[in-house]
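Marked as duplicate of an earlier ticket. Keeping the data here for the record.
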Amino acid sequence: MTRNAAPTARRFRVGPPLPATFYDRPTEIVAKELLGAVLQCTTAEGVTQGVIVETEAYTGPEDPACHAAAGLTARTTHLFGPPGLAYVYFIYGMYWCVNAVTRERGHGSAVLIRAVHPIAGVDLMRARRVRSKREVDLTNGPGKLCQAMGITGAMNGTSLRNGPLVIRAGTPVPDNNVVVTPRIGITKAADWPLRFFVKDDPYVSRARPASSGNAKDPLSS
């Protein structure tokens, strides 16, 4: 690991778990307002925390890139609620991805957490991702952050308020520091402006130009 590649440390607020009502809102709003919140994972090895700096909204059955478009299946049971659950799924036979379920029970929408800025348990993250050559490569992608934080399918369907995965209140990100772009890494509805990230944060997975105009600030395999 190249330690001198680490971004300058900053102070972050870590508050109480976000209430269930936070998630029971339009998915695009939740996706935007999760920026600055703190994702915490507790395992037998220890506790890791990271500030959420990149998200994507997957808005429900009408969204062809969302798992809910295929209907209720054994895989997607927890995607359909209630709001405030963790929806953790496996992709490419290699990686876990973690999502926060939104809206009312039965709808089938969630926010994919794409990147976090590590603030606690960083040595444990390094031990789990020994091949990462740069500090930013620890958590600058959805599969990377799950590996670094110890997030697995065993956490699927757990509460984000009191489970091994908790999302805590953090420092809200001002609108002028939020960038909105199309989602990435998908082929369906790839032009929908449903990706949100913190401007200039080094842990964002990959930057694209901001979408023009006022996008509606609105789970993929």
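See parent ticket for discussion. The first strand starts at residue 38 and ends at 43.
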